Structures are given as structure tokens and as C-alpha cells.
Amino acid sequence: MALKSKQTGVHKDAASPYSKISAASLSSLAASSPLYSCRSAKSPTITPALAASISLSSQRKPHTRQSDLAMVSGWLQAMKAASPPRAATLQSANFNGSRQAVLEAQYIDWVAKHPSALANFEKMMEAGKGKQVALFLDYDGTLSPIVEDPDRAYMSDAMRAAVKEVATHFPTAIISGRSRDKVYEFVQLAELFYAGSHGMDIMGPAEGCNGVKVDGTRGMDEKGNEIVFSQPASEFLPMMNEVFCRSCCIIVLYKVLKLSVLKQSDIQVCKALEQRSKNIQGAKIEHNKFCVSIHFRRVKEENWRALAEEVQKVLKNYPKLFLTQGRKVLELRPSIAWDKGKAVEFLMKALGLGLNGDVLPVYIGDDQTDEDAFSVLNEKHNGYSILVSNVAKKTNASFSLRDPCEVMDFVHSLVKWKLKSSHEQNSS
Ligand SMILES: O=P(O)(O)OC[C@H]1O[C@H](O[C@H]2O[C@H](CO)[C@@H](O)[C@H](O)[C@H]2O)[C@H](O)[C@@H](O)[C@@H]1O
């Protein structure tokens, strides 16, 4: 069995706010094919609806009612593909037995292509001998189970202890779609790096993590602690004329320029969405600082289209934003060339890792937005990309874990492996 499979990521033109929508439609189509075969997202079966959405979006023609409908359908399809049934649903007595059997058969086939990172742990870690392991962890669905209310997605104390311990051995970062503050509130470990808003807001302890010193812009956090944060302004300046595009260096903007424009724009988006969605029962809008999430989890499926259409109306007023799909969530984000993959690259560079092929990065995530990071690890760093899923899902990840419990076991295994290798080194 080949332990590392290089897989091609979906091409994205970050300059185009429509490009991710097309890419997501392509992925969702591939994902909805029988057995979720891993064929390239660049060559899917083209349906008439998809063809309409691709040609209209790539040529950036003015919207027509038909293109609007196709676009909304594409979002909903992609969101469904990214939202497998939760473990509790799969196990519930009401869950259709034959559907369960089909899903299980698909999973067995899928896991042969994306083997368990637990079952293959020893073999995988042979590649880590003599290398610095760096650990990147997504939050929702990876460190905490998926729950109905996003405000109550707590991680267990046992998981917190496991992450705390692993961070004493390896540089560790949490890369989340949540706002950095929110994810910190859940995790509460000051020794980690945090990349919130899908990597657009990076911050970490100035002294580094696990003894790895950080090369980056220094400053103070809200509590006066010395921190290091991302400062991609010089690299991204051409794209940062609009307030949303400047979001990567928000700390600089707030502290030095004292601009509140960005915040106001964010609030405008939130308010507009809240007003539009208030008649749709169960809808929830979450302000993730540089992204806004529209939650569908508690909305009846018959109302999904209505909610998505409202989101589309808002999106039309904010051409500097684009939309991505996650687990029963649509997200509006600034159209900048930045995603979780870029955040991983930024952190690797800031931590001085991977310059001589002397690092083994490991990324664990469960959602569509983690795919960007999987591609970066596969293609650029020869690292391990691990998808958390208990059903077959189209992914760029090479390995899999079933759920957050298995993630915790994997994290424990990393600690044991490190202790064992240090012991072996000391006694040789
Ligand atoms: O990158 P992540 O840390 O995985 O964040 C992605 C989104 O996660 C959250 O939503 C998801 O988890 C919720 C709690 O379990 C669940 O209710 C929701 O349906 C999921 O989509 C978070 O609320 C979003 O803002 C994040 O973007």
C-alpha cells in the first residue's frame, strides 16, 4: 500500500470571487458520483445546470434568473456533499437500514483509498524519524464533535489535555474557520498558534511553540502578552485595496491605523443577513471576524433554498466577497488569495520549518475548507493529510480518522512515538 498519494487540488483563481463557487460545484458533482470516486475535480461530468453555472460564472456575465437558480443549486449540492450524516444519526434506529448498508459499503471501499491513520501509525511515522513533526489541527468536527448549536461546540477536557501534551513535543497550531477569539475561548491553550477565520487571522506566542522560535511581526495581544502575528501586507498589497482584502493584517490595521471600516463592513454583512434570514426558522448567522457563516443545520431542508437565495442577494451587494460551503453552512469570505493552505505555509515559514525537507507536517481536518491545507501538505511538503470522516467523502487527504475520538487517540500516539524515539536516541 502506498502511504503517500499525491492528489491534484481544485484549481482556484483567487482573484475571481466566482472561482470557488465553480470549483465547489465541480467537487460536489464528483462527490455525488457513485462510491464517491476520487477522480479529478477538473474533469467532472457536466450536467446542463452545472454547464450554465460554469459558463456564466467564468465569463462573469451579468446574472440572469436562470444563472441565479443554478448557482444556488450548486451551493446546496456542495453543502450537502460536505455534510455527511452525524454519527448519532447513522446509529439511530430511524436511519434507513438499507441506506446505512450502502453508506457502510461505500466507506469500506473509501477507507481502502484513504487508510486509517491509526491503523497505519507506525508505518507512517517511519517518515518522521530525524524530522521535526509539526501538527496542524482544525477545530469543529476534529477536536470537538459536530453539534446543533455552534456556540456549544465544546472540546472535552481529555482532548484539551491531549493537545496540551502534544504541544510540549511538537509545534502545534489550530486552524479554524471560527474567529480566532472564539476558537481560543474553546481551546484555552496559550502555548499554541491560532489561525482563525480560515487562516486570515494568525497569532501565537512570541517565544514560539515547543522551543521552535518564530520569525514574524511582533506585537502585544489584548491582554498585553507579547505575540507574533501574520503580516502578509507587503506580499498581498496589490489585492488589499478594499477593506476586506486587508483582513490578513487586522491587528496592524486596528492598532496602527485605528481603522474601524473593516469591522463596520463585517457588521453590515451580518445585519443584512440577519434581517433577511429572520423569517427562516433555525437560521443562524455567525460573525467569524473575517468571514460570516450562515448556518443551515437547524433549518428545515424545505427552507434551505429560500435561505440560500437570501444569501445570494446579500452576496450580490458585496462583490468583494465570495462564498464557500461547509457542513450545513455557507460562508462569505473576502476574495483574497488566502485560505487554510496558505495559513499552513505561512506558519511553516514563520516557524522556520520545512526549508531543508527536515519537517513532517501533519494536518487533521474534517471539512471542505481543510482541503486547501491537504493539497499544500501533499504537494509541497510531503506531509500527512488526514480527513476526519465516518462516511466516504471526496477528499485530497491521504489518510483518515473516523471521529474526534480517533483524533485524540492519534494525538496520544504521536506523544508516545516521540517519547519512544527520544528514549531510543538517548540510549544509543
Ligand atoms: O474550520 P473549523 O474549525 O472546522 O470551522 C468550520 C465551521 O465550524 C462551525 O460550524 C460547524 O460546527 C458547528 C458546531 O458543531 C455545527 O453546528 C455547524 O453545522 C458546522 O458547520 C462554526 O460554527 C463555523 O463558523 C465554522 O466556519
State the gist of this model.
With 428 residues, this protein is an alpha/beta fold. 41% of the residues lie in helices and 14% in strands.
Describe what you observe in this structure.
With 428 residues, the protein is an alpha/beta fold. It has a domain of 207 residues: 3-Layer(aba) Sandwich (Rossmann fold). Helices cover 41% and strands 14% of the residues. A hairpin with a 5-residue loop joins strand 5 and strand 6. Helix 1 packs across helix 3, helix 3 packs across helix 12 and helix 13 crosses helix 14. It is globular and about 65 Å long. The N terminus is likely disordered.
Classified by CATH, the class of the domain at 116-232 and 338-427 is: Alpha Beta
Q: Helix amount, in percent?
A: 40-55%
Q: What is the average per-residue confidence, as pLDDT, rounded to a whole number?
A: 73
Major pleated sheet = 9 strands, mixed
Number of contiguous helices? 15
Task: Quote the distance from N terminus to C terminus.
Answer: 31 Å
C-alpha-based Rg, rounded: 21 Å
CATH architecture of the domain at 116-232 and 338-427: 3-Layer(aba) Sandwich
Strand order, sheet with most strands: 5-6-4-3-2-1-11-12-13
Ligands, deduplicated: ligand L263DTV3
Q: What's the count of strands?
A: 13
Shape: globular
Structural class: alpha/beta
Question: Key features?
Answer:
Rossmann fold; binds the ligand O=P(O)(O)OC[C@H]1O[C@H](O[C@H]2O[C@H](CO)[C@@H](O)[C@H](O)[C@H]2O)[C@H](O)[C@@H](O)[C@@H]1O; four-stranded antiparallel beta sheet; 15 helices; 428 residues; 41% helix; nine-stranded mixed beta sheet; alpha/beta
